[in-house]
Design goal:
The chain has 471 residues and is α+β, with helices and mostly antiparallel strands. It has a single domain, classed as Cytochrome P450 (Cytochrome p450, Orthogonal Bundle). It is 51% helix and 10% strand. Strands 1-2-7-4 form a four-stranded mixed sheet, with helices on both faces. A three-stranded antiparallel sheet has the order 3-11-8. Strand 1 and strand 2 form a beta hairpin. Helix 11 crosses helix 14.
Length: 471
């Protein structure tokens, strides 16, 4: 059946509405699924597309290199991220992906665990101060730690006072830019650059982008100075991480590639912007939701603590890579949190050729919106999907599940390059937190509303109560 005659997945032509209040945009995708099922057609103004809510159709799109070109809303991020790994396509994307993959090698991550542990200790010291309070907003505590981890690992830059000065502007600018992107996304007449750049919001966006670029340029300049002073580890020494020329932390790798003429200064800035955003913002949000949910699930928290006791006993020592591999139940909890609160709740791809989805032929040039948030809640794969059940991710329970029914890091050729980094960081922070503190609920998980933004965010602040465990 052709796209034109896809009647049972047809929705009104002005589905890319003239106007949607941004706060309602998140729920809009849920409403389309409830009304039209696993495939629905979108038409209106500059857009022809389909909404995808099934793992089978998601696999068709994400697993093929023919459909890996990204579209709206990703292209709205170009003033900030340029043509970096998140947005680039074709040969440039392939070359950048190949260039950056060694920066996330196992041995690099192993080297980073020291920083993960040090920053987790700083985070736990902040949490200890919060035990005197009746409730604590989670997100601000988390964001300080995740951005420091990104700077001191992948970027090799210490968070001194000079960088702290621009950090506050950076964090605010991310929030402002997210609002600008959602504002534009919910008003289809702003999809063209010509109309958008005439708006007042474009001016707000330009100022936010300026602050974002100031921060990342300062990080790059700081690392250049450090290298000129000869403080960089010799890439030809016997160190297990730097023993191979290709195995370097990300920013050092980019600066080495610049010497070889494989990337210029703008290209370095694009990738630093991309990874600073993807490496801290998504992780911050996941940790915020996970801490809230674990506080609400006492039996789950008890099981995590029992696992930590089996691994560490009463020792205060830092975890090793071997310890992380033993955190089986905690890993299931992280995966269940990623199922319920995927950092990127939907993703889009443009079709470079005709494809069949759910039995319907969808033409070349169509934008496919894959709704990860809803796929993760399909009852045929996740009975009682709103319940927090880490056991869903035990080997015996996930073996028969469709592989694309769980895609928090996307899947296929354009899956998240930093997913192992993220999992290791989350394990470090969550294991440290549960070992030292008992989490008590303040914000109830059923009361959490979601906000349309660059990543999945809570509409209102999320609070929890921290109480120190007796050691």
């Amino acid at each position: 059946m052709s796209y034109r005659h896809c009647n049972n997945c047809h929705i009104p032509r002005i589905v890319i509405q003239l106007f949607i209040i941004s706060d309602d945009l998140f729920n809009y995708g849920r409403e389309l699924y409830a009304k039209y099922g696993k495939l629905s057609k979108i038409t209106g103004f500059h857009i022809r597309g389909v909404n995808v809510y099934s793992p089978e159709d998601a696999e068709t799109i994400l697993s093929s290199p023919r459909y890996n070109e990204k579209q709206i809303p990703y292209i709205f991020l170009e003033p900030w991220l340029g043509d970096g790994l998140l947005i680039s396509k074709g040969e440039k994307w392939h070359d950048r992906r190949k260039m950056l993959t060694p920066a996330f090698h196992f041995n690099i991550l192993k080297k980073f665990t020291k920083v993960f542990c040090e920053e987790t200790e700083e985070f736990l010291n902040l949490v200890k101060e919060e035990t005197k309070k009746d409730k604590t907003e989670i997100m601000p505590l988390i964001m300080k730690s995740t951005i420091r981890i990104m700077c001191e690992t992948s970027m090799g830059t210490s968070m001194d006072e000079d960088i702290h000065t621009v950090l506050k502007k950076y964090l605010k600018a991310i929030h402002v830019l997210g609002e600008c992107v959602v504002y534009r996304f919910s008003r289809s007449w702003f999809y063209t650059n010509f109309t958008f750049f005439l708006s007042k919001v474009a001016g707000i966006q330009r100022r936010a982008v300026k602050d974002l670029h100031i921060f990342t340029k300062q990080i790059i300049q700081e690392r250049r100075r450090y290298r000129k002073q000869g403080k960089i580890v010799d890439i030809n020494d016997d160190d297990e991480v730097y023993g191979k020329k290709s195995r370097m932390a990300m920013l050092d790798l980019l600066l080495e590639q610049e010497k070889l003429g494989n990337i210029d200064e703008d290209g370095i800035r694009e990738e630093v912007d991309t990874f600073m955003f993807e490496g801290h913002d998504t992780t911050s949000m996941l940790l915020t939701f996970m801490i809230m949910r674990i506080a609400n699930e006492q039996h789950v928290q008890d099981l995590i603590y029992e696992e930590m006791q089996r691994i560490f006993g009463d020792s205060r020592r830092s975890p090793t890579m071997e310890d992380f591999s033993e955190m089986k139940y905690l890993e299931c909890c992280i995966k269940e949190a990623l199922r319920l609160y995927p950092s990127v709740p939907f993703m889009s791809r443009i079709l470079n050729e005709e494809v069949t989805l759910s039995g319907y032929k969808v033409p070349e040039g169509t934008q496919c919106n894959i709704h990860v948030f809803d796929i993760h809640r399909l009852e045929e794969y996740y009975p009682e999907p709103e319940k927090f059940v880490p056991e869903r991710f035990l080997a015996e329970n996930k073996s028969t599940r469709h592989p694309f029914a769980y895609i928090p890091f996307s899947a296929g050729p354009r899956n998240c390059i930093g997913q192992r980094f993220a999992m290791l960081e989350i394990k470090t922070m969550m294991s440290g937190l549960i070992r030292r503190f008992h989490l008590q609920p303040v914000t109830k998980h059923e009361d959490v509303a979601f906000l349309s933004d660059l990543v999945l965010r809570p509409k209102y602040p999320i609070y929890v109560r921290f109480r120190e465990r007796k050691m």
